[in-house]
Each structure stands twice: as structure tokens, then as C-alpha cells.
Specification:
Elements lengths: L6 H13 L10 H25 L10 E2 L1 H4 L1 H7 L13 E8 L1 H4 L3 H13 L5 E3 L14 E6 L3 E4 L15 E5 L5 E5 L10 E8 L7 E5 L5 E5 L7 E10 L1 E7 L8 E9 L4 E8 L5 H5 L2 H6 L7 E5 L12 H18 L4 E5 L5 E2 L3 E2 L2 H15 L3 E3 L1 H5 L5 H6 L12 H23 L2
Parallel strand pairs: 2-14, 2-15, 15-16, 16-19
Antiparallel strand pairs: 1-19, 3-13, 4-7, 5-6, 6-13, 7-12, 8-11, 8-13, 9-10, 9-12, 17-18
């Protein structure tokens, strides 16, 4: 495997991780928090019992994070600082980065997990947002983007590697050659939770040929300027109040400026709590992210504490799945995450059950899950077996009959993704309670 440690190194690393203990946060009140967690346990158990009664094909007994006490140790340590002691954490927030395919791009699965975590630990903002509407593809219902001027082009991670237009941290890139090209971003006023923001970070390509970006309010008042020339990819604009609407417009102030390239936006409300960034790209497999160097380069901008990897459906969809090749591609992805974000932990989530060509069960998904679990165990990563919780091999037809899956027997309905997001939240909370009770 590329960059994989030797068996001896893995053994040594495992012992080091098992003996690793992070110090308590300053001022942390261990007993009250433990008491609060113990109070919530019956509620979580009741929610699982209710889900089991509503959907008998579920295996809620399998809804747990394997290796959580080792693989999520730092994440849980930081989570313990919220909401009681946010000041003890840098920036007063914990950042989650959830990476996946079409199961994530619409942000229904990840959106439910985000809402549940933020309801428990605080809402620090939406996090990463890409102008999906401008790119003519589906995206999160938490915000809407519309092109209002100019011609825009977009590419997604399936194009990686692409030497002419590199994919950024969103798994997408948006570009225009028009000075004056513009799009709007709006946060729905009645949607809850509300993701209005008073800090906007623009992730753009900088350089002598890059346009400037003007950020304006709905009334046309200039809120800030993002220069094309300047160090780094990210430019932070601190706004005068919480905003639910901005317009971004490219502008040429020098003749050398010929293009605008955007990788994404970060929406922040300045409050302590959870930032939950979703990176979902339709059709992607592990190998697509693994060969996108700018994607890795920009990941530290999200300051991740935890990566959740929900990939695999597309890796095993076609016949001819090669477990050894997939293991090498997975190793390349994980090594890339760890090189760029060495303090962040990784949770591998097995893909759900699905069918090929709407008719045939897919036995390769079981082989892929075996690779994921073995990799997690060998590298002290956390692992969540969604397919097992779902009901196991062939359970997709039961989800379809219950109105939780679409007719293609690959994707889920809104209710199906919502259920998955709730199950992931409950599994994370169960692991957290066990961690605190040690």
C-alpha cells in the first residue's frame, strides 16, 4: 500500500494509540457532564427501540461505532468541551468533515446528523457551501445559489486529475471568464436551524490573472472585497451583522485579470458549537478523491477534528471489484488526509446495501466492507457498519417497500437518508457515552 507502515510500525503505532490519553480540557467538570450523558442514554435507547418497532428489518443492535474508544478519542475529548466549556477550545467549535458520493451531495443524510449534533452541542454555522445551483446540480436545501450574470462552468471530482482545472476542497470547482459574472446565495428564512452567517470565507484561486470578487447585500451595498492577488486561497470577510443573503460578483481592475475560479464558501455565525462540513459529489469513488491533490491541500482550511468517510457504493457498483486495488486506493486517501490534517481522526462508514441494474444483489459490497473493517482495525480507525444496521445483504428491497429507498435500489428517499443521519448520530452519542463512562 502506498505509504503504509510496516507491520512492525503498525503494531508500535497501535500500542501508542491504545496508551494515548489526552489531558482534560481546562476547567472541565467531568462529573456533571457524565451525569448529563447518563440522563440522555435512556432517551437514546428509546429512540432506537422506536426505530426498531417502526422498521423491523433494521438491526439496531449493530448501531455502534467500532474502535470508538481508540479511533475517536481526541474527537470525544473535544466534544466533551461542548457545550459546557466552549472557551477551552480553539475557536469554541468542533469541526466535522463528512466526505461521500451521491448519498451525501443533497445533504439529507449529513444534514440530519448535523442538526442532531448541533441541537446537542451548539450551532456554529453551516460550514462549507458550494454554489450547486450555479453549477446546475443538486445540493443542500440549507442554502440556495442562483447565477444572475455571466457564464459559469463547473467540474467535479470525477474529472480528477485534471491539469487544466483542479478540483478543490468541495470536490468541485467553479470558473468564469466574464468580468461582472455574478451569483447570489440565500439562506431560507423559515428553515430551521437557521444558517445565517456573519463571517464569510471565500475560497478562490489567487494570482495575477484572477478577478477580484465584490460581495454585496440584497440592497446592493458593498460588504467586502476579495482581491484576486494575495496570499493563500481563503479570504475572510467579517460582516456587520448576521446575513442570509449575499451576491458575489467578479470584477476586473487590471487588464491582466482574465478569470475567476471558486472552490467554495465557508459560512460561520461566530457561535460556539459544531461545524459540520459536507463534501458530497455524485458518482465519486475513493479513487477520485485520492487523485485530487488540491482537494487535500485545501482540507486544512476546514480545521477538521473528525473525517467521516461514506464512500464505496461506486467502487463496488460494477462487476470486477478488486479488493486489493480498493485497499490501495483507500490507503492513498487516508494517508492524504493524515498528511494534511494529522490531528484529525477518521471514521470509516460502510456503504449501504444496494442493487446492480435495479435487479441484482451486489455481493461485492460485502467484500468491500471486509476491506474497510480490516483497514480500520489495522490502523486504529473508527468504523460504522451502516449496511449491517440497515438489515444486511439484500435489505434494500425492504427499505424500498417501506418507502425509504428509490426505485433504482441504490439511492434513498428523503425519509431514508434522514433515518441514516439519525442512526449515525445515535451511534456517535453511544460511543461518546461509553468513552466518558470509562
Amino acid at each position: 500500500m502506498t505509504g503504509a507502515p510496516s507491520p512492525q510500525e503498525r503494531g508500535s503505532g497501535s500500542e501508542a494509540n491504545r496508551s494515548r490519553r489526552y489531558p482534560p480540557l481546562p476547567g472541565q467538570l467531568k462529573l456533571p457532564l457524565l451525569f448529563l450523558l447518563l440522563l440522555t442514554l435512556p432517551a437514546h435507547a428509546q429512540r432506537l427501540d422506536s426505530l426498531q418497532a417502526a422498521y423491523p428489518f433494521l438491526r439496531t443492535s449493530a448501531n455502534r461505532i467500532e474502535n470508538a474508544s481508540i479511533g475517536l478519542q481526541r474527537f470525544y475529548q473535544r466534544l466533551a468541551g461542548l457545550p459546557l466549556h466552549p472557551a477551552a477550545l480553539p475557536g469554541g467549535r468542533v469541526s466535522v468533515v463528512h466526505i461521500g458520493d451521491s448519498h451525501l451531495q443533497a445533504d439529507e443524510f449529513s444534514g440530519r446528523t448535523r442538526r442532531e449534533l448541533q441541537r446537542t452541542y451548539g450551532n456554529a454555522g453551516l460550514g462549507l457551501a458550494f454554489p450547486f445551483g450555479v453549477a446546475h446540480t443538486n445540493g443542500s436545501p440549507a442554502f440556495h445559489t442562483v447565477a444572475v450574470a455571466g457564464t459559469w462552468q463547473a467540474r467535479r471530482a470525477l474529472a480528477a486529475p485534471d491539469s487544466t482545472l483542479s478540483i478543490g476542497v468541495s470536490g468541485f470547482v467553479l470558473t468564469t471568464a466574464d468580468s461582472g459574472a455574478a451569483f447570489t446565495l440565500r439562506v431560507p428564512a423559515l428553515r430551521r436551524p437557521n444558517y445565517s452567517f456573519n463571517k464569510l470565507t471565500v475560497l478562490r484561486q489567487a494570482g495575477p490573472a484572477a478577478f477580484d470578487w465584490v460581495v454585496s447585500s440584497a440592497q446592493g451595498r458593498r460588504l467586502g472585497l476579495v482581491p484576486g492577488v494575495g496570499p493563500g486561497t481563503a479570504v475572510v470577510l467579517r460582516l456587520d451583522s448576521l446575513r442570509d443573503f449575499v451576491e458575489l460578483r467578479t470584477t476586473r481592475t487590471r487588464s491582466a485579470q482574465t478569470s475567476g475560479v471558486l472552490y467554495g464558501l465557508l459560512l460561520d455565525n461566530g457561535q460556539p458549537g459544531i461545524i459540520y462540513n459536507t463534501i458530497g459529489v455524485n458518482g465519486t469513488a475513493v479513487r477520485h478523491f485520492a487523485c485530487a491533490p488540491l482537494f487535500f491541500e485545501q482540507l486544512p482550511l476546514l480545521e477538521p477534528d473528525l473525517f467521516i468517510i461514506s464512500l464505496g457504493t461506486n467502487d463496488a457498483y460494477s462487476a470486477g471489484f478488486d479488493p486489493d486495488l480498493f485497499a490501495r486506493q483507500l490507503d492513498s486517501l487516508i494517508n492524504g488526509l493524515r498528511r494534511r490534517c494529522p490531528r484529525a481522526e477518521v471514521l470509516l462508514a460502510a456503504p449501504p446495501d444496494s442493487y446492480r441494474a435495479r435487479r441484482y444483489r451486489n455481493p461485492d459490497l460485502e467484500r468491500l466492507r471486509t476491506v474497510l473493517r480490516a483497514y480500520a482495525q489495522a490502523h486504529d480507525l473508527a468504523y460504522w457498519d451502516l449496511a449491517a444496521v440497515q438489515g444486511g445483504y439484500g435489505s434494500m428491497r425492504q427499505w424500498r417497500a417501506a418507502g425509504l429507498a428509490q426505485a433504482d435500489l441504490v439511492h434513498f428517499t428523503h425519509a431514508g437518508y434522514d433515518l441514516q443521519g439519525l442512526l449515525l448520530y445515535l451511534a456517535l452519542q453511544d460511543g461518546f457515552a461509553a468513552f466518558r463512562a470509562r
